[in-house]
Automatic annotation (TrEMBL), chains A, B:
It comes from Psychrobacillus soli. Keywords: DNA-binding, Transcription, Transcription regulation. InterPro entries: HTH_MarR-typ, WH-like_DNA-bd_sf, WH_DNA-bd_sf. SMART domains: HTH_MARR. This is MarR family transcriptional regulator. Residues 1-131 form the HTH marR-type domain. Pfam families: MarR (PF01047). The keyword Transcription applies. It comes from the Bacteria. GO terms for molecular function: DNA binding; DNA-binding transcription factor activity.
DNA sequence: AAAATATATTTAGCTAAGTAAATATATTTC
DNA sequence: GAAATATATTTACTTAGCTAAATATATTTT
C-alpha cells in the first residue's frame, strides 16, 4: 500500500484510541462526544441534520443517539413533522460540557504541538487534495 | 473539534469506503486485503507477526484471518512452536493477487492525482509530526 | 522438577462504521 | 382524493477496531 494511505489510517486509529482514553474519565466514547459537540454547537438537531452534518449514515446516528439517551446525555422530543426526532442536550450534558470540551482541547493541542500554525494549514490543504 | 482532526477522520472514512468499493468486484474488504498484501509481501507470517506489523490488536487479526480462511484466500499451518499458527496465501489468492494489486494501485494513484510527489512527501512528514 | 512468568492465540463483549430493506409519515402527481 | 414518490427513522446484519480475560504452550527461576 502507498505509505501515504498506510500512515493516514494508522494515525486515524491512533488518534481515536487516544481520544477515547482522554474521554474515559468522562465516561464517553469519541463518536458520542462528536455527536454531543455537534448538538451543542447547533442548539438542537434532528437525526437527519446530525448525520448529514457529520457525514455518516443514518443508522450510525440512530444508534449513537439512543445510547446517549440511555446514558442521560441527550433527550429526544418529537418535531412538528411527525417523522422527525429532535435531539437536545440534557441538563447533565449542559453542565459537564465545558469541562469535557476543555480536556479535548488540551488533548488536541498536545497532538499538534509539533506543527506550526502554518504547517497545520498546509496539512489540511493537502488532506483536501486527496479525493 | 479542531478542523485538522475533523478532516483527517472524514478522509480516513472516505478512503476506506472507496477502497471497499474498489475491492467489491474481487469480493474483498479493505482490512482483508491489507492482511493478504502483508502476507504476500513477507512470504508467510504467524498471527503475531501480522498484528505487530499492522499495528492492530491480536483479536482483530484472529478474526480477519479466520474469515480469509473461510473465503479460501489463505491457509493456516502449525509452526514448530506449537502455540503459533503460520498463515500463507492460498493457490487462488496467489493467482488473483496481481490483478487485485493493480486495481488498488490504480485507485491510490487516482486519489493522490491532485498532489505532486513533493506534496505527498510533505504530507507524510506532517502526519508523522502529529503524535 | 515444580512454580512462576512469558508468549501465542482465542473468546466474549463493546464501540463505530457500512449496506439493504422495512416502516411511518409527508408531499407531489394524476 | 387516491396513487406514486419522497423523506425520516429504524431494523437486521456485516466488517473492523478495541479491551479484558481465558487457554495452551514455552521459557525462566528457584
Amino acid at each position: 500500500m502507498n505509505p501515504l494511505f498506510h500512515e493516514l489510517f494508522q494515525k486515524s486509529r491512533y488518534l481515536t484510541n487516544e481520544i477515547n482514553l482522554t474521554l474515559k474519565k468522562h465516561n464517553l466514547y469519541a463518536s458520542q462526544w462528536t455527536v454531543l459537540y455537534c448538538i451543542q454547537k447547533h442548539g438542537e438537531m434532528s437525526l437527519t441534520q446530525i448525520w448529514k452534518y457529520l457525514n455518516v449514515e443514518a443508522p450510525t446516528i440512530t444508534r449513537t443517539v439512543y445510547r446517549l439517551v440511555e446514558l442521560g446525555w441527550v433527550d429526544i422530543r418529537p418535531g412538528k413533522d411527525r417523522r422527525e426526532k429532535i435531539v437536545h442536550l440534557s441538563e447533565k450534558a449542559s453542565q459537564d460540557f465545558q469541562t469535557i470540551k476543555d480536556s479535548i482541547f488540551e488533548f488536541e493541542n498536545r497532538m499538534v504541538a509539533g506543527l506550526t500554525k502554518e504547517e497545520e494549514a498546509i496539512f489540511i490543504e493537502l488532506l483536501r487534495k486527496i479525493k
